[in-house]
């Protein structure tokens, strides 16, 4: 025979297509709609799939999958506005330290 033993027994691994990745990303997106591409990539790695975060982002853009992330209100600006309006009265005491 003119073929090596390793080539004879070699079995090619099935490569995941974009549609396979889309299905996996959509399953995660259904359960966790607030997850972005970074969290989805981490969840896929936890599940045993190896994929780059850049590929997840590219696929999410390609298939128009968007997270429904709600940003929190900036608490510092809220408290500052209350202090400016006089609604929040805070009494500060100066501590005298003995040296």
Keywords:
99 residues
Sequence-ordered SSE layout with sheet pairings:
Layout: H1 5-9, H2 18-31, H3 37-46, H4 53-62, H5 75-85
Describe this structure in words.
It is a single chain. This protein is an all-alpha fold and 99 residues long. It has one domain (16-85). It has helices at 5-9, 18-31, 37-46, 53-62, 75-85. Helix 3 (37-46) packs across helix 4 (53-62). The chain is elongated, with a radius of gyration of 27 Å. 6% of the residues are buried.
Which value, in Å, is the CA radius of gyration?
27 Å
Shape: elongated
Number of individual domains: 1
- The fraction of residues in strands falls at under 5%
- Please bin the fraction of helical residues: 40-55%
Number of helices: 5
Q: Quickly give the structural class.
A: mainly alpha
Mean pLDDT over the residues? 81
Task: Write the element-wise H/E pattern from the N-terminal end onward.
Answer: HHHHH
In angstroms, what separates the terminal alpha carbons? 93 Å
Strand tally: 0
Unreliable segments of 5+ consecutive residues:
none
Please describe the biggest sheet, giving its number of strands, its sense, and whether it closes into a barrel: none
Short characterization:
This protein is mainly alpha-helical. The protein has one domain (16-85). The protein has helices spanning 5-9, 18-31, 37-46, 53-62, 75-85.
């Amino acid at each position: 025979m003119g073929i090596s033993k390793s080539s004879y027994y070699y079995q090619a691994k099935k490569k995941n297509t974009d549609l396979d990745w889309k299905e996996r990303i959509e399953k995660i997106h259904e359960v966790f709609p607030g997850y972005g591409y970074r969290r989805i990539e981490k969840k896929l790695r936890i599940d045993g799939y190896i994929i780059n975060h850049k590929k997840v982002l590219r696929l999410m853009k390609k298939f128009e999958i968007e997270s429904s992330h709600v940003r929190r209100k900036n608490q510092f600006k809220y408290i500052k506005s209350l202090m400016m309006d006089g609604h929040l009265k805070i009494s500060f005491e100066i501590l005298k330290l003995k040296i």
